[in-house]
């Protein structure tokens, strides 16, 4: 919206992927009164989208209907040149799936008749069939390139991980480590505190029934982080 000033209400928006990022994008677009279509390769996520009343179909079908396209999969070659050739006039394509491999921008650069830079991070390509495609951020992260890039949870995770590594250097040998659950819960705890959310506490009886250790679970004191 900041990049193009387009009104999303009434537009047909396609979200590729219905994981954490895709769910948030679909909800945001739906809240702005867009008609949202979801594509997904995972049957569980596809069913979740269908249950939430989204139309779920293939990109090959939806590319002919959509006006705004958002890729969220973290995978590659999601929107190809073949898809873009079937899109409506001035369709907007962008990516929020963390990697710039989801939209085939190289195909656009190679096959477009004319490329016009409208604004920073906003390019309009004229295809050989006479239609135009508006590409945001050259396929890179649109929330960072075209907005303020609010990523509170992600950055809090990174800060807590850095503090953990700095204060406990002997605990983690050089390599790739999964973020400890206690730190992941720390991020949630900090956000819950700011939202003034009251969290129920797991009792020892329930912990025993669930076969999980109660120590370190669901810590509610935000001052510990």
Automatic annotation (TrEMBL):
It holds the Pfam family AdoHcyase_NAD. Its EC number is 3.13.2.1. The keyword NAD applies. Keywords: Hydrolase, NAD, One-carbon metabolism. The keyword Hydrolase applies. GO terms for cellular component: cytosol. InterPro entries: Adenosylhomocyst_ase-like_sf (IPR042172), Adenosylhomocysteinase-like (IPR000043), Ado_hCys_hydrolase_NAD-bd (IPR015878), NAD(P)-bd_dom_sf (IPR036291), S-Ado-L-homoCys_hydrolase_CS (IPR020082). It comes from the Eukaryota. It is an enzyme of class 3 (hydrolase). GO terms for molecular function: adenosylhomocysteinase activity. Its cofactor is NAD(+). GO terms for biological process: one-carbon metabolic process; S-adenosylmethionine cycle. Residues 1-149 form the S-adenosyl-L-homocysteine hydrolase NAD binding domain. Pathway: Amino-acid biosynthesis; L-homocysteine biosynthesis; L-homocysteine from S-adenosyl-L-homocysteine: step 1/1. PANTHER family: ADENOSYLHOMOCYSTEINASE (PTHR23420:SF0). Belongs to the adenosylhomocysteinase family. This is adenosylhomocysteinase. It comes from Henosepilachna vigintioctopunctata.
């Amino acid at each position: 919206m900041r990049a193009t000033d387009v009104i999303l209400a009434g537009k047909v928006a396609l979200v590729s992927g219905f994981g954490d990022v895709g769910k948030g994008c679909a909800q945001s677009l739906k809240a702005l009164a867009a008609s949202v279509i979801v594509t997904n390769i995972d049957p569980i996520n596809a069913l979740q989208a269908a249950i939430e009343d989204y139309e779920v179909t293939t990109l090959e079908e939806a590319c002919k209907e959509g006006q705004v396209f958002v890729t969220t999969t973290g995978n590659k070659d999601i929107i190809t040149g073949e898809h873009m050739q079937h899109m409506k006039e001035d369709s907007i394509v962008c990516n929020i799936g963390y990697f710039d491999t989801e939209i085939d921008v190289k195909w656009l650069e190679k096959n477009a008749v004319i490329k016009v830079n409208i604004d920073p991070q906003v390019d309009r390509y004229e295809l050989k069939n006479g239609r135009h495609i508006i590409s945001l951020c050259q396929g890179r992260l649109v929330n960072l390139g075209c907005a303020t890039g609010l990523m509170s949870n992600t950055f809090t995770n990174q800060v807590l991980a850095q503090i953990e590594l700095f204060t406990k250097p002997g605990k983690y040998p050089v390599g790739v480590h999964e973020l400890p659950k206690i730190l992941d819960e720390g991020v949630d705890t900090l956000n819950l505190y700011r939202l003034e959310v009251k969290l129920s506490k797991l009792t020892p009886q329930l912990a025993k029934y669930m076969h999980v250790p109660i120590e370190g679970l669901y810590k509610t004191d935000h001052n510990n982080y």
